[in-house]
Amino acid sequence: MKRKLVFILISVIFFSGCKKILSPADENIRDLSEIYNDAAFAEGLLLNGYVRLPGGNYAFTEVATDDAVSNDPSNTYRLMATGKWSSLSNPMEQWTSSFAAIQYLNLILSETDKVTWATTGQYTKEMFNDRTKGEAYGLRALFMYNLLQAHTGWVGGSLLGVPILTAPQDSKSDFRVPRNTFEECIQQIYKDLDLAEQYLPLDFENITSASQVPAKYAGKTTIADYNRVFGAYNRQRMTARIVKGIRTKASLLAASPAFKGGTTVTWTKAADDAAAVLDLNGGLSGIAGNGHVWYAGSNASEINGLSAGLNPREMLWRRNVSDANSLEKDNYPPTLYGNGRVNPTQNLVDAFPMANGYPINDPNSGYNPGNPNAGRDPRLGLYVVVNGSKEGSKGSIIYTKKGSTDDGLNAIPTSTRTGYYMRKLLREDVSVDPANSNTQKHYVPYIRYTELYLAYAEAANEAWGPDGKGSHNYSAREVIEAIRSRAGITQPDNFLASISSTEDMRKLIHNERRLELCFEGFRFWDLRRWKESLTEPAKGVTINPDGSSVVSPVETRLYNDYMLFGPLPDSEVQKWGLIQNAGW
Asked: Among 267, 269, 440, 473, which residue is least crowded by beta carbons within 10 Å?
């Protein structure tokens, strides 16, 4: 009886509602026209640009260079560096995400004038519209920069970039758009950045006086309404100051040796663009005293105190602060319950000079091969765990020599392969002990000022030599002197003083960039834009129980000459008939 009643009930429901059941449901897709009266929906198009910004976590592309190896056999950069890099498998690829972001940014740029950004306040609708345009132009330029860095290449004597898309695409669009030249792409970046600066404030900060309202809005709005649109609430969104930083990065890329002959961008322009940011930061006096240790260990209180989008002095632009311990889980040595993933190489360790500033192979350095870590540049101890280093909240001693603990060379799968562990970026007040774990605040920078000071030094040296200043108040030598002094190099810096040629200063600047920016994702791109070798074997040190040591190759780097320029994704080449970069 119960079975019959259930069957009858189901039958009644089915036949009485069969029309609705058998009809397709409405798609939950909003029409684009709905953005005109829904500012939050419209802003979602812009925010799609922000969420696609690379850099949410550290990628550690150094594993693809002579600076590091990984103990993870499946690490994509390890596979890439050992012969698995192709147009079908490219962990450096920026094509998909960047063009997706550009599509959303083009959409909002094409529609923003029609959006009712605000219904109250004096001139707020117009100011929101301006801000949206400025952010979108700045973000579009940044994504174009990412595309050029990853996918520019020489083809038949021409330096090609990517297709320039400045209008949204739809089902009726012609997707077979050819690649523009690198020069056309870099000029498009400059055009977008110039437009962004016209619409954006230097910083998002609250004003307190009507006299602080920019001239273009003076007399049209109130202090409260201006702050509503351009006030401190919007910190860490695109600003004119950030735009200047992006311009610096783009100009440094374009002026570099790998692009020589394919662009009109000069070292002078790169230096001038960098100086435009540095001057706003106070020039040499703006170099943050803790800029070389911004990453937590000795600056925990500074990071813990960040709020309301504020920046430490070292930061131009950063991601949000979050509680985490994943970096420590991945990179602490095994005895601290970590996986020891990123292992600095002997190559990188040897790049650190002595504390007196001389390279370890210089007769004046005082380097002792029998005690190789004594008297070294203080940055070595800050960035790398060597045999006998103390690490973690309890100051545990880490022994990387063979036959000691699980931290020893190749002791277990999560041990170091080089005799070193990475220290930089880790907060040593984090514990990942399963019985007593905790998290601490972390953040990832988009642009640090140290990067920009080094960019100026590089460009100024190439443009005017070690002591030339162009139209500015400081030289390449003076910038490098300030950075090395901050690092703890003994003053006076006699090695720096001994340098007189552009060539020797270039070597020093390249090395300072290698040290200051290690493990932040620069080395791979720098080697390529400098046209320097990618095939330097990654070396490590074996420290025997008796204290003797042997340096030997750990991992061979399998790159071909054409790999100074990366590939376009093979799928895009096949679908749209794009010209692939030479060799791929």
From this structure: 473
Class of domain 35-54+94-265: mainly alpha
> Tokens 């060597």 label which residue?
386
Three-class DSSP labels, 27-63: CCCCCHHHHHHCHHHHHHHHHHHHHCCCCCCCCCHHH
* 240 vs 242: CA distance, rounded Å: 5
What is the predicted pLDDT for the residue at 296?
Answer: 62
Measured torsion, CA atoms of residues 379, 383, 389, 390, in degrees rounded to the nearest 10: 110
Q: Give Rg (Cα) of the chain.
A: 27
- Bridge partners of 160? 153, 181
What was the pLDDT predicted at 536? 98
Residue 512, CA distances (Å) to 161, 177, 188, 368, 570 in order: 29, 41, 31, 22, 36
CA-nearest of 384, 513, 408 to 452 is 513
What are φ and ψ of residue 70, in 5° steps?
-120, 145
Residue written as tokens 């050029």?
148
DSSP 80: I
- At how many degrees (to 10) do helices 182-199 and 240-255 cross? 160
For residue 210, count other CB atoms closer than 10 A to its CB: 12
The tokens for 496 are: 């720096």
Are the CB atoms for 149 and 259 separated by under 8 Å? Answer: no
Query: Does an H or E element contain 120, and which?
Result: none
For the chain, domain boundaries: 35-54+94-265, 270-317+443-518
pLDDT, residue 56, reads: 79
Stretches where the chain sits below pLDDT 50 are 1-25
Model pTM score: 0.94
Which pLDDT does position 177 carry in this prediction?
96
| 534 secondary structure, DSSP code | S
Our CA dihedral for 19, 24, 30, 33, rounded to 10 degrees, sits at: -80
Residue 474's contacts (CB-CB under 8 Å, 6 or more residues apart) are 278, 283, 284
Cis peptide before 553 (omega within 30 of 0): no
